[in-house]
Every structure is written in structure tokens, then in C-alpha cells.
Amino acid sequence: MSRKAAVVALTALAPISWGSTYFVTTEFLPPDRPLFTGLMRALPAGLLLLALTRTLPRGAWWGKSAVLGALNIGAFFPLLFLAAYRLPGGVAAVVGSVGPLFVVGLAALFLGEKPTVRTLLTAVAAAFGVSLVVLKAGAAFDLVGVGAGLLSSLSMSAGVVFTKRWGRPEGVGALALTGWQLTAGGLVILPIAFLVEGAPPALTGTNLAGYAYLALGNTAISYFLWFRGIERLSASSATLLGPLSPITAAVIGWAALGQALGPVQILGMAIAFGATLAGQLAPAKPKARPAALGSFSSTEKNGQEVSMDLEVSAVRR
Fold first, then answer.
1. Buried b vs exposed e over 36-55: b needs ≥16 C-beta within 10 Å?
2. On the chain, which terminus has fewer CB atoms closer than 10 Å, C or N?
3. What is the pLDDT of residues 180-209, one digit of tens each?
4. pLDDT averaged over every residue in the chain
């Protein structure tokens, strides 16, 4: 296996893990607490990584960490939840699947990654494949919900691009940078969760087990792999791994929850998976950015993650 293939495989574990969120939420967590779930995913994971790495931001990285945490977690989650409540899950997932197109545009502007016809076609094919997997007949549209879905996708996409542009400070590992972002994002969600949903619900042992999985495997480890992958891959290659999330969610729903998986859904999965593979055919190293944009270090979020389907499905309970 080549070095790039190994990086792609490890990075792909993040959206694959995020595809399990719907199953864990429906089977292990209390219903109707999406913001609290987002808080329990981000803040404990961030604080754990801070405790393990014992490294805090310095200088400008206090501000950069706050911006990245807000884009990748703090703004992304609430906007995503608003879209989920205003739209059917499939519609919200399709709206979110335009994330790779946002990344292509932002990467051209901030990273100097010139978009190619292949990249654009691949991003469109990925969105089309996801729509076949999750979109239901007669789905309704809501302008506020669509706007929130687009903004959440834009937030995550900007997080991918600026994570790539800023890299990480010299001598600081990817694990510490992940902890900074998750903590910052969790602190953004904290007051929103309490204002909107009130005090935390009473938790059972099953609930605690579900939150432990989300915080550790689904967030701490997955976001570490995601941010690490963003540093080593082009922004478009990383974000085109996002369709693996709705594919995983659909497979788990079929295998564990008895949900239907017909020919149209299977075709959509094949198209989305094919687009994901095609998205990894870009050169291993992106072209250098113009000097005026500054330099970034070369060293896991998404989605983004981008993975909208898993989050959207989870919060619709």
C-alpha cells in the first residue's frame, strides 16, 4: 500500500465512524436532545485530549483554535440541527452533500488549489449519489431549513480549508490541535444547548455508554484522523471522503435496524462510492499556493463530514 493510500484509508475511518451516529443515537441515547448530544460529543473529547497532551495554544493560536473550533464544531452542529428540524432528513443530507463544491471554491481562493473539471464532476456525482441513497419521494422544502443546511455545510467546508491553510504550530502534534478545536467548539455549543434545551436529562447506564462511544471513538479519535488527513491530502480529496458517512449509515440501518435498501439506494451508494474513489486520484501533494497567501505546515473534521446524513439522521429523533 502506498503512503497516500494509507493516509486515505485512515482518514476514511472518520466519516465511516460518523455513519454510526444514527444507530447509536436511536438505540442508546435519550430522544430530542440533539444539542446536548453535540455538547457531550465535543467538550469531553476536547478536554480529554487537552489532559493527554498537556499542550495549550500560544499567541495567535488562541484565536485560530477558536475560529477552527467554531467552524468545524460550534457553528456546524447548531446549524445542522436547525436544518434537521426544519427539513426531512434526506433533504437535509442532500443539502449538506454540496460541501465538496464549497471546498473546491474556498480551496481555490485560500489555498491556490486550482479546480479541475474532474474534481467538479466528482463532487456533483457524489451529491447525486447521496441523493439517491437518502432522498424520499414527496420530500418537502423549507427556506429556513435549506439556508441553515447550506450554512452548516459552508461552515464545515471553511473549517476544512482553514485547517489546511493554517496547518499547526511547530512542535505541536495533531492530537493537541484536535483537542483545541473540540474544546473550543464544545464551549460554543454549551450555552446554546442550555438555553434551547434546558438542564441535562437524567442519564441511564445505556445513555452513558452511548455518550462514551460518541466522545471517544466517534469524536476524539475520528476527528484526530480527520484533521490529520486534511493536513496530508488536498482539501478536495479529503472532503470527497464525506459520502462514506451516508453509505455507512445506510448499511448499518439495513443490517441492524431492518431499514429497506432497494435498487435505487444501492445504485446511489455505488455512484457515491465511485465518486469518493475518483476524488482520491488527485496528485498526492497539492500545488503550492501563491506567496501572498502565506505558508502552511504539511503534516481528520468533515466533513465534512462532509458527513451530513449521519448527523441529520441522529437529530431527527
1. bbbbbbbbbbbbbbbeebeb
2. N
3. 999 999 999 999 999 999 999 999 999 999
4. 83
Interacting residues of 88 by C-beta distance below 8 A, sequence separation 6+: 136, 139, 140
Grid coordinates in use for 229? Answer: 488527513
Residue 40's nearest CA partner among 50, 52, 30, 27 is 30
Look up residue 5 and give its three cell numbers.
Answer: 493510500
Query: How many Å apart are CA 306 and CA 99, to the nearest integer?
Result: 6
306 confidence band (pLDDT: 50, 70, 90): very low
Q: What is the pLDDT of residues 133-192, one digit of tens each?
A: 877 655 556 788 788 888 988 999 999 999 999 999 999 999 999 999 999 999 999 999
Q: Give the integer Cα–Cα distance in Å for 61 and 128.
A: 38
pTM beyond cutoff 0.85: no
Count of CB atoms within 10 A of residue 98's CB?
21
In this predicted structure, the answer to whether residue 293 has a pLDDT above a threshold of 60 is: no
Q: CB-based burial of residue 205 (10 Å sphere; 0-12 exposed, 13-18 middle, 19+ buried)? A: exposed
Residues 6+ apart with CB under 8 A from 303: 15, 18, 76, 96, 99, 153, 156, 160, 239, 242, 245
Phi-psi region of 258 (alpha: psi -120 to 50; beta: other; left: phi over 0): left
Degrees (nearest 5) of the Cα angle 306, 309, 313? 145
Q: Please give the grid coordinates belonging to residue 174.
A: 495533531
User: Taking each helix axis from N to C terminus, what angle separates 117-134 and 308-315, rounded to the nearest 10 degrees?
Assistant: 30
Q: Where are the alpha helices (DSSP H) in 97-215?
A: 99-110, 117-134, 143-166, 174-197, 205-215
186 by Cβ neighbours in 10 Å (0-12 / 13-18 / 19+) ranks as buried
CA distance 237 to 242: 10
Number of other CB atoms surrounding residue 72 within 10 Å: 32
| Single-letter residue type at 272 | A
Cα dist. 33→29, 184, 316 in Å?
9, 20, 10
